[in-house]
Amino acid sequence: MNSIVINIGNTNIRFGLFDDDNCDISWIINTKPYRTSDELQMQFMMMYQTHKIDAENIDKVIIGSVVPQLTYDITRAIEKIHGKKPIIVDRNTPSGVEPKSKQMGTDIYANLVAAHHLYPEGKKIIFDFGTALTASCIDAKGETIGVIIAPGIITSLNSLIHDTAQLPEIELIKPTKVLGLDTVSCMQSGMVYGFLGMVEGFISRINEEVNEDCFVIATGGVSHVYKPLTEKIHIADRLHTLKGLYFLGKDL
């Protein structure tokens, strides 16, 4: 069965083409500026053509969203392309995971669901390096232990640049040294090692609180920057959230 899975985030919209449980192709478009359903339809069709996807061969479209105002327009665009309504999943969609909160975002719930399916043994922590930096923890039974929400890396970097007169835009990459001698390397060190210290601190405190060395998964746009810098993150998977949305909508 072929499925398109769409994760509507505050910064990006990520698409994945699933052949059964395998995501063969994925791509991203920017969430802003907001577009009409007609504009979205044209953009989606262009991406389908780029990746040689025939809409008639798609059996199911699954959508998870944390941007309600976009969900309606994207749903309309998908209906026009595929001639059928997509499946909308959220924290109320039944799964083997107990969210424990009526305020939990769809992305966090999907991260927990994917971890429960893909790594069933022991307790897991999922770090999502998105618009916000989130850390969610789940046990082997599928019970949510808790969640942390902190400012996102790119969000913090943009705030730093926009609210200062002389700091430039920079590429988020590992600097050659922790202590820099020019503005760019100084900022890179602050953003990379500063947030790495936060992540490692969260892992240590969570492990102590749950009395177990958790398996740690990193996902989100800049997770690839941080995974090589620490042994505390065991795996980086940019498609982790998409996989969770797929599992939520798979049997609906």
TrEMBL record:
Top EC class of this enzyme: transferase
Pfam name, any one: Pan_kinase
Cofactors, names only: NH4(+); K(+)
Residues where substrate binds: 105-108, 183
GO molecular function: pantothenate kinase activity
Active site: residue positions: 107 (proton acceptor)
Residues involved in ATP binding: 7-14, 131
E.C. number: 2.7.1.33
Main location: cytoplasm
Cofactor note: A monovalent cation. Ammonium or potassium.
Catalytic activity: (R)-pantothenate + ATP = (R)-4'-phosphopantothenate + ADP + H(+)
Parts of the chain that traverse the membrane: none
SUPFAM superfamilies xref list: Actin-like ATPase domain
Keyword Amino-acid biosynthesis: no
Family stated for the protein in its record: Belongs to the type III pantothenate kinase family.
Binding partners and assembly: Homodimer.
Function: Catalyzes the phosphorylation of pantothenate (Pan), the first step in CoA biosynthesis.
Designated name of the protein: Type III pantothenate kinase
Organism: Kaistella montana
Encoding gene (name): coaX
